[in-house]
Automatic annotation (TrEMBL):
This is Nuclease (SNase domain protein). PROSITE patterns: TNASE_3. GO terms for molecular function: endonuclease activity; hydrolase activity. The keyword Nucleotide-binding does not apply. It comes from Devosia epidermidihirudinis. The keyword Transcription regulation does not apply.
Amino acid sequence: MVTGGVVTQVTDGDTVVLDSGLVVRLIGTQAPKLPLGREGYPTWPLAPEAKIALETMVLNKPVRLGYGGEEVDRYERALAHVFVEGAEGEIWAQREMVAKGLARVYSFPDNRKCLDQLFAAEGQARMAGLGIWRDPYYSVRAADRPESFIDRAGHYELIEGRVLLADQRSGRVYLNFGRFWKEDFTAVIEAPALRLFKADDIDPVSLEGALVRIRGWVDDRDGPRIEITHPEQIEVLATQ
């Protein structure tokens, strides 16, 4: 944990600027996005509300920063957990935003700390239908209905279903959710990610038959796919 500074600007629901000029990306979360000057980029549903909620929480207040992995991204932003004093003690900004349903868990292979607490907060918000979880834009997609999200290529999605076949070939693992791999949803785990699974003593091939929730960026190579870069992208909901 290191001293941060005073928040002088909130860019959106997961990015703030400190009085030192340091830009801080709230690692572990993804809030609804604003265009921020990007031509043709849409405003995601509830993006203004997420920004306002974070402003209310941290703007013009001193914060502390905590690091749990890679500390700086390619844009020179600090990748940190943000803590601010509230009326009832210290508030962890990431967890508060997720608990309000104004952000979802968004993890990276080089930044995996504290995710269990964020997943718990997200699950409660989703069950309660708070914030983004009331909006179809953020719905958890059904893996056995790929036609309902094939047009979501380029979007970050949560997709839930039962693994029909888990197969390791050519140094990668494929989790197939349907019989027609060129049309149905597939999660692909490449060799670098498999090393992380092995380090955590997880065999992804054992997920065959399991009910899981996958999160990540959808592409449309041979049907809708998500590349898995680290174990936390897969939540096991039931093994049978």
